[in-house]
Amino acid sequence: MRGNCYNCGQPGHISRFCPLSDRRLNDQSMAIVPVQTPLTTAPASAAGTGVPTYPKQYTNGGGWLESRVRTLEDKVGRILTKHEEEEARVREAKEEEDTRKREREEEERRQWEKLDREELHSKLSGKLDRVCEAIEGKKSNGDDDVAKLKLKIEKLQKAQTGKQVATTIKENDGNKEMAKLKEQVEMLTKQFAATASTSGTKDNGESEEIARLRREQVDMKAAADKRFAALNEVISALQRQCEEAEASAKAWKSKALRPGNKRGSVEVGPTPGTQARNRPRVTSIGTPKLATGARKESELEIERLKEAMTHLKMEERTRAGGTNLKTKMDEAACPTARKDKGKGASTSATKATQRDTIIKEERRKLRNLNKEKILLICEEEGVPYTTLEPTKEDIVQRRAKKMFNKDEHKKEKEKEISVLEVAEDDGEDCEADDGRDSTSS
Hints:
mainly alpha; 75% helix; 441 residues; disordered C terminus; flat
């Protein structure tokens, strides 16, 4: 800190964080100079006077800051109330406007409906008026024709009376005119009768058309009534069926849920109209890949057997091609012991190598096969399936054992045959040796 506090004069803090009250707020304002009485005595010397002390606590509510805060709060409160009042007034105005708009739209809609009704009424009334006028016009035309004919007849009669007066003067001319008038009257009467008949026929045709239309209307009404009656019967029948089905379902449910019922259910026959669904039976057939694998396996087995046969033939040739008399005598004396002593280790080693090769070959074949193919192989060879890899290993071991047993069996047979042949050769050699010994002796 560069200097001391401006408020209390103490070092270590500034006036903003001073714990004492601010002197600038508590001191009397110098704007108004107070009136003082003149001092009669001289002021005491300032010697010996100490520095004024200030209380080490805050003054609560004694400064202008609190009053300023209160005034600001009042102003803010009044502003908020005014704002809320304005918002409420705007909201009310908007609601009133919406209601007026809705009422106006409703009034317009009613007016449009009224206009539509009036227009429809006017159209219907115009059509009815035209129909009535057409019907009444036909009748009035007939009446007018009759009235016109009556007037003509009266005029002719008057003219005839006037002409009769003139005929007293001129009888001959009058007779002719009288005849003409009679002819005209007859013609007029005939025309009147024809018009009356035509009007009668027209009226009869219109009445017949109206009657026909009424009969058709009655027939259509009767047909519609029959159809409605049939539909009502169908609906009632369907309702009865639904009610019967619901009643039967409820009865079945109550019987099934009965505590004394055996197995908690009721034996129900098959539903009518349904067909039994049978699952199709599928016979498993080996895939072409498995067939080709089996063929390759059989070919490899044949090749291995051929190699074993050639190997055995080579051993027989090497064993039977010796010319040493001692070895032949030893073989003749004890052939089994010599064979066991000379070839025990070699035969066991060859067996192990052959078994290893067979196992490797079978593992290579079964390496890429999936579960379905392994299951088919298990069914064919009678191997129990546990999991994929152990089952493969079991199949490999069984195949190796089977093939190795076959090879051993064949080798044993071939050995027996070779032993018999060697024994015969030894007998012949012994006879030759006996002859030689006898000659030498």
